[in-house]
Amino acid sequence: MNRLPMATAFTLATLPVFAQGTLADYQRAATLRETWPKLATGVPEPAVRTAGNKFVYRRSVAGGATGTRQPAEFVGPGPA
């Protein structure tokens, strides 16, 4: 009797157990989430509508964010 199919099935059935993350993995991921946004620059944020039919467009820069306020009728420098 060939035992290879049984051994293969048992090995494949136990693989997902080893894929579970450890506490250290989750802690490292949490610190990366706090650190990486400070390193990325030029990342746009969603436009926010303000009073008076204007929009504020923000993007990240080193040390914070910068933004511009444009009227809703504003047409940018080129096609979107």
What percentage of the residues does DSSP assign to strands (E)?
Answer: 15-25%
Uncertain stretches: none
H/I helix tally:
2
Give a count of the beta strands, DSSP E runs of length 2 or more.
3
Shape: elongated
> Average pLDDT, to the nearest integer?
77
Main sheet overview: 3 strands, antiparallel
Helix share, percent: 40-55%
Strand order, biggest sheet? 1-2-3
What's the N-to-C terminus distance?
66 Å
> What is the ordering of alpha helices and beta strands?
HHEEE
* Rg of Cα set: 25 Å
Structural commentary:
The protein has 80 residues and is an alpha+beta fold. The chain has a domain of 32 residues. Helix content is 40%, strand content 24%. It contains two helices and three strands; from the N terminus they run H-H-E-E-E. Strands 1-2-3 form a three-stranded antiparallel sheet, with no helix packed on it. The longest helix is centred in the middle third of the chain and has 17 residues. The model has no long low-confidence stretch (mean pLDDT 77).
Characteristic key phrases:
single chain, 80 residues, alpha+beta, three-stranded antiparallel β-sheet, 40% helix, elongated
